[in-house]
Here is the input.
Amino acid sequence: MALLELDRVDLIYQTETDETEAVRNLNLAVDEGEFIALVGPSGCGKTTVLSMIAGLISPTRGSVTVGGKPVTAGSGDVGYMLQRDNLFEWRTIESNVFLGLSVQKKLTKENREYALAMLDKYGLGEFRTHYPTQLSGGMRQRAALIRTLAFKPKLLLLDEPFSAVDFQTRMTVCDDVYSIIKNEKKTALLVTHDISEAVSMADRIVVLTGRPATVKKIFDVDIDAPTPLKKREHPSFSQWFDRIWKEVSL
Amino acid sequence: MTEKARSKLPCRMAKVKSPRQVYLAKRRNDKITTVLLQIGLLFVFIGVWELAATVGWIDPFITSCPSRIVKILGTIDVKDLFIHIGYTLGECAIGFVAASALGILIAVLLWRFKKLRRVMEPYIVVLNALPKIALGPIIIIWVGAGMQAIVVMTVLICLIVTVISVLNGLMAVDEGKILLLKSMGASRTQILTKLIFPANVPALVNMLKINVGLAWVGTIMGEYLVSTAGLGYLIIYGSQVFKMDLVMASTVILCLLATAMYLAVAAVERIVKRKYHGE
Ligand SMILES: Nc1ncnc2c1ncn2[C@@H]1O[C@H](COP(=O)(O)OP(=O)(O)OP(=O)(O)O)[C@@H](O)[C@H]1O
Ligand SMILES: [Mg+2]
Here is the structure.
């Protein structure tokens, strides 16, 4: 059974002046351990899809289930990483990483140690007691990811997580995040504007239509290389890029 | 140590200063001259005032002068003076604390309940526009002409401004951070305690600083109206019997008290800010 299932999902936003149909008849199944990239034209409804999976808004029609159960915010099954790292400036890195655990009242010794071990493992151990402003953009992004992983979600949602990172560090942060997610054997759903980012990270790329969003085409990307950077250097990379790019801009 | 070496050593130490040391020395000198000038200005002001009065450029009966202020402070019964100071300080402090606490509470309620906020909006606008001093006579009739009327006056003057500025701060917290907490399953209370309050610590301290000033306005206004005790009463009384020395002396004391209270809040601000940023 798939870990995440969206079954004939519609979403219509209601506002004072009119209603916006953001998602129409969207079907998607994601298996455990997969890395999925969601690409589509700007404003087509990608963030809306993630918000539904995170349980922040409920679909107008259809169902969203994680592990067979309908999603609710705060079940702890889904970790949502937003565009900006949203680290709290007044908390140390360590206490930022504990945020989800403390919200969900799961701040046990065992969970603490798990989170701290991840900080150590991914090169932030010595910055535990530092404040976010004292860290570089890439380090902050890593801290934000560890904060999301700390409460052991089954599914990770990443909404353009690298768009706020400057171009120079973007590729390495991309590599770091990828290796952390693969290392921890997490299932991830990445939304991005950047097709090369999607091709270099995902096992599967889901191309959405313009608004209202629905699945246009799904690609199983099989570039045989261990990391995003290596995938970018692979001969078949540019062919994949062209195929996806054509599909998105058609 | 050889003669040569001895002559060389202190010379090197005196001459070779790192750019950092030069910078720090310059900074220190700047600070010292600024403070000296500030003190100097005060003395010049006092001196010119005294001189003008002695020479006869100004009439000390109307303008008073430093020596007469000192003299009258000597003649006032110290116990009496402290009772007046005590009244003013007490009224101001109670009003300040009550207005700040109540203002924060109301702002939180308005933040929490959107409906309440919508309903209350026009009332807040009107109350904010209203010159609170106009309510003075009503307050006196309702709560009686005493300390309580002055405290109410102080609270009224501080409260609306507090509510508006705190509410603005609470509403200004980054949407993304709220979304993050919601996605973790945070309740409204958790969003308040884990995000909204900590994010607003600097704004809250700032609000306290503004309130100190407003609380003094409220207290002195109240004492002008009620006129039973306190520095505001001394000022009004002094002006009515044309004792300008008493008016000036009370004003000087008021100046010192307000400054002291402001400095106390500024010290709190420094501590909070250091804690807040962990520097
Ligand atoms: N809260 C809301 N109320 C009303 N309409 C909304 C709301 N949020 C989004 N929309 C509309 O729904 C559509 C899809 O928005 P969404 O943010 O999901 O797009 P997106 O694909 O994430 O865009 P982008 O590529 O710019 O990030 C847009 O037309 C947007 O204007
Ligand atoms: Mg978006």
